[in-house]
Design a protein that fits this description.
binds 3-[O-phosphonopyridoxyl]--amino-benzoic acid, Aspartate Aminotransferase, domain 1, 16 helices, four-stranded mixed beta sheet, 2 domains, 37% helix, 15 strands
Length: 442
Amino acid sequence: MSNRLNVKPNDLSAFWMPFTANRQFKQAPRMLVAAKDMHYTADDGRRILDGTAGLWCVNAGHCRPRITEAIQKQVAELDYAPAFQMGHPIVFEFANRLVDMAPAGLEHVFFTNSGSESVETALKIALAYHRARGDGARFRLIGRERGYHGVNFGGISVGGIVANRKMFGTLLTGVDHLPHTHLPGRNAFTRGEPEHGAELADELERIVALHDASTVAAVIVEPVAGSTGVLIPPKGYLKRLREICDKHGILLIFDEVITGFGRLGAPFAADYFDVVPDIMTTAKGVTNGVIPMGAVLVKKEIHDAFMNGPEHLIEFFHGYTYSGNPIASAAGLATLETYKEEGLLTRGAELAPYWEEALHSLKDAPHVIDIRNIGLVGAIELEPIAGQPTRRAFSAFLKAFEKGVLIRTTGDIIALSPPLIVEKSHIDMIVDCLKGVLDEIE
Ligand code: PXG
């Protein structure tokens, strides 16, 4: 148990917290000091049930011995090795294991340190690929409204979350956006994939016609949009995007930072929806969230297009000091072993019906205007308080924490994504807690 229990920091002002209401937090801090399996421990000793796998990343649950031990062993043996012009065996092994489990055709891995960096890397690979083939007029990138692709400039440019974009100037040029797929009027309270909206993929044809296909490099989407509040693709939507991209020679990038590593009950969303992208971005669950790491998986043809010219020359001018660092690679290998040994990459499929039933039991609770679910992801959308958007869901978040459950909220949407080791009894606790929360909040 942590020796930090009951030790209070004496000043909270220096740390500028990310994506946080800093002033509110610092008046009434919510501190986590330890974690094990499905639970956190708060600094007052309370056990908090983790309804969000940290931030959608701790898929195997917390402080899993195999992962902890692998990190401890690696840090004592080879702590760091340069990633440029040098290698170490474990990163090659990890890349092989990732390729083994990835959808067929994705045969090469570029390592990063986060989802945001994976996105930047994927966009740069897409642009450079076309140029390497002598098709450098393809410079446009198409994202989607309400998309979240991290917080770096490429990611916020193709992303579609207004608050994440509006403060930051002109962003990347040559970007356009598909419409989002949220159709509450037609799809509210759908279980799993919505019936309506596949035709929204055809908007890609309109965008391509506007700019001419010869200028479009890639389309990037989250197969299931997570951060914006869990928008599940309408039936057939992703297949149509794939067809349109193929027709016009446009690369399709799936941002699987959230959906990767079992979240939907299949290893990747690409498996779940049976649509293979040309490039797939991952992070979070790749190391169970324990050590920062991202991995971009790439089709062989794309990788091979770079492998020409004199052999002493660098083929792709991109990389990070910590790309594939030994400790992250060791954590990643141990994570994949844990997933495999415990069947976690498909466990979500077994639990999904129970999860769905439990979530939808909240249909008649106060303030609820929509419930959505897929795999082990869920969202409960609340009617906003008039004139005060986000306030109701934030109250729900605070109240749930008081009651011992960690949830996430975005706008007025509660998003849920428990570790994949979740038991039915935990699901019941999450839903019972939310019932109480919704009854009590304004
Ligand atoms: N792409 C997607 C699809 C994501 O969900 C990123 C990229 C960026 O990853 P990094 O590692 O740079 O943060 C993400 C991250 C939430 C939440 O509660 C979601 C994310 C991060 C933090 C919170 O919705 N997604």
